[in-house]
Amino acid sequence: MMNGRGKRIYYRRDNGKAITSEDIYHMVMLQTYQRVPVHRIAKKFAIKTIEARTLIGRRACGSCCG
After folding, report:
1. Rounded distance, CA 36 to CA 7, Å?
2. What domains sit in the chain, N to C, each tagged with a CATH number?
3. C-alpha dihedral (49, 7, 20, 23), degrees to nearest 10
């Protein structure tokens, strides 16, 4: 879902809650320091692999385009 400013909001498939910035921070830390594969991170947070890859890429690389 897109909000008014073009920022995408991702929702968990298990309970329908939105992914928070804290969740994204945990994803980045898991991938960066513990080298957890993206598909396992996606499974842990109940989102699609491509969504996890997008969120991690945006946060870790600092890109506005993701």
Report:
1. 26
2. 1-66 (1.10.10)
3. 40
Average pLDDT over residues 13-18: 94
27-40 pLDDT, tens per residue? 999 999 999 999 99
Using a 10 angstrom Cβ sphere, with 0-12 exposed, 13-18 middle and 19 or more buried, the burial of residue 45 is buried
Is this model's pTM higher than 0.90 or not?
Answer: no
